[in-house]
Design a protein that fits this description.
There is one protein chain. By secondary structure, the protein is α/β, with parallel strands linked by helices. Helix 3 packs antiparallel against helix 4 and helix 4 packs across helix 5. It is elongated, with a radius of gyration of 21 Å. 44% of the residues are buried.
């Protein structure tokens, strides 16, 4: 299955809310009155685009009509695609995870979003590209997370730096960066404990880890937030608070299946200008796809 088909499957719910909603508005009537604008606003918000993006889109559409563009479904869809592309292109990323000596990537996010599995999938892709990879089990609160990362390490051929459950996660990160530098590793991927973005103490601990890592570095450093596509607008709240705690380099959206609320991606990029690096569409390592703006937009409107 190619990227567009996988993306289309993952965006089924969002596409139904957006594309079908738009078609229902424009069936047999011109786009001229306030009632239609209100309906359009409801459709866009219902697709998890959020209030800020919806207001921007409504303004752009009204301006296009004032310039004499046709007020029909096909013209509206073309204009929406253009506006979506402009928003997403405002946070493009030259390489999903840049090369380095080593490049260190810190994965953060709340509980249950799939951070550890995502790390394993990213590690698999790097190994397939011939890069050396070291994993760090920074989620010391859960013995299961340490074991899960170790399994991924064995599966992809990457060593794992870990400590007993309950150990200081910052110490694990420090040891891992030191080891990656000494071994001349290409990529160090660091797992962290899931934490509520509103928990002050846990966020302060994460910022401490971030500072320790940054002081040691000899190569690139990525701070990647993993988000669950099922959470809709709550994902935007998470992204804002994690971005405030540490300047995020990128976002990976997991669980992009048929019930996902993928429109939130546009809201996040509009608000933070942080690029989407990958989307997860399934359980296997091949189901972590580099994010494609064009495939995403086409999938939203595929009929």
């Amino acid at each position: 299955m190619n990227i567009l088909k996988k993306m289309a499957t993952g965006l089924t719910k969002t596409r139904q809310a957006l594309s079908q909603g738009l078609q229902s508005i424009f069936t047999g009537k011109p786009f001229v009155d306030d009632a239609v604008w209100d309906q359009l606003t409801e459709v866009l918000i219902g697709a998890d685009l959020g209030i800020a993006v919806t207001e921007r889109l409504i303004t752009a559409l009204k301006e296009s009509l004032q310039k004499g563009e046709p007020a029909d479904y096909d013209s509206l869809k073309k204009r929406l695609k253009l506006e979506f592309a402009r928003i997403l292109a405002g946070a493009t990323h030259a390489s999903p995870l840049p090369q380095g000596a080593p490049t260190v990537t810190l994965f953060v996010g709340v509980n249950g979003v799939g951070k550890t599995t995502t790390i394993g999938k990213v590690a698999a892709q790097f190994r397939q590209a011939g890069k050396s990879v070291l994993l760090a089990a920074g989620d010391t609160f859960r013995a299961g997370a340490i074991a899960q990362l170790s399994i991924w390490g064995e599966r992809v051929g990457a060593s794992v730096i870990s400590a007993p459950p309950g150990a200081d996660p910052t110490s694990v990160a420090f040891d891992a960066v030191s080891a990656a530098i000494a071994r001349k590793i290409d990529h160090l991927l660091i797992d962290t404990a899931g934490r509520l973005q509103t928990n002050h103490n846990l966020m302060e601990e994460l910022k401490k880890m971030d500072r320790v890592i940054a002081k040691q570095l000899t190569g690139g450093y990525e701070r990647v937030l993993v988000l669950d596509a099922m959470t809709g607008q709550n994902a935007l709240s998470q992204a804002k608070l994690f971005h405030a705690a540490m300047k995020l380099s990128g976002i990976i959206l997991t669980k992009l299946d048929s019930a996902a609320r993928g429109g939130i991606l546009i809201s996040i990029v509009e608000a933070l200008k942080v690029p989407i690096l990958f989307v997860g569409t399934g359980e296997t390592k091949d189901d972590l796809l580099p994010f494609s703006i064009h495939a995403f937009i086409d999938a939203l409107f595929e009929e």
